[in-house]
Amino acid sequence: MLMTKFSPKQQKYLDAQMKKVSRSFALVVAELEEPLREQLAAAYLICRVVDNIEDCIEPFQWQQRRFAEFNTLLQDPAATNDVLRMWGQYEWPGLTRDERRLMASGDGTMLWDIYNQLPEHSQTIIHRWTADMAEGMNRIEDPQTTPFLVERRGVKVLNSTDDYNRYCYYVAGTVGHMATDLAVAHYGFSTDTAAALDATCEACGRGLQKTNIIKDFAKDVTRGVSYVPDEWLELADYSPLSLAGAGLAWKKQVLGDVIKELREATNYVLALPPDAVGYRIASLLCLFPAYQTLLQAAERQARLFTGKHRVKISRRTMINCIRDARRMVDNNAGIVAYSRSAEERFAAIFSAAQP
Description:
Blueprint: H1 8-21, H2 23-30, H3 36-55, H4 60-75, H5 80-87, H6 97-102, H7 107-117, H8 120-141, E1 149-152, E2 155-158, H9 161-187, H10 191-215, H11 217-222, E3 225-226, H12 230-235, H13 248-271, H14 277-299, H15 315-327, H16 332-353
Parallel strand pairs: 2-3
Antiparallel strand pairs: 1-2
Helix pairs in contact: 1-2, 1-3, 2-14, 3-4, 3-7, 3-8, 3-9, 4-8, 8-9, 9-10, 10-13, 10-14, 13-14, 13-16, 14-15, 14-16
């Protein structure tokens, strides 16, 4: 595979942009070897462009045109300046200042220049999975397609469990595939290893996205959306949508679904060859904080889905996750023990909470 030599200016740009959009994922990417580090950082920022289109508070038809223009950026480097100049004229309501800057000339131009400098194989991988992400987000919002979204008590919610999993695939499962394909190309994994990773990478993405859905539930509801599916909310008489809480069994079911995904994510890490040190640490830095977030949610279950819903691991816990990831990078038995211990603690917390 051709090596890409990024300039110090480009490396500084990627590092700064990653810290602006996701400090936690910036820590993950920093563990990777060059040029995978820069490739995955650029890929993640391009995913943020898709997210920004979806998060912008504009009508569906407006977003649909922006998704089409995003696909143009993926395919035609010559169109970059025209598209970003046009995007820079929009207000992008709902986005932060840094997010808006990424959608215009300047910050946006640098990102797409880096993308166009990547080897063709890397561009193909990023193109494939970010285009799939954009198409999926477009379909979710499209009123002419199967109703992914329904409205309950003034809140838009995903319709079914299948829609929940499909949504998590579109926004995060695609990222799992993209990161895996870039890693396979970078390290030259065997066909068997690549197949094992491909079989579990979607669960990695879904597990991380579902963890974020639990973490951000109250914040999402206050802005009129919930990604917990209607099928599940109906079982709780929709009380979570009013931030009025839910029964213990219901909360255990919602969190337990994420635990199952993280179990598959553990298998993903175990399938990684030991010499892929950077990518192994990066993967553990996704897995371990997710487990700790779910455990904190379980420990605070009495406040979950209420106005006091707060789920965010501390800086000290994150430091411990970094330490554990580096310490266990070549210790599959230790990784398995970590996963099992987290699941046992999860079960014990809910067992102790039963009346």
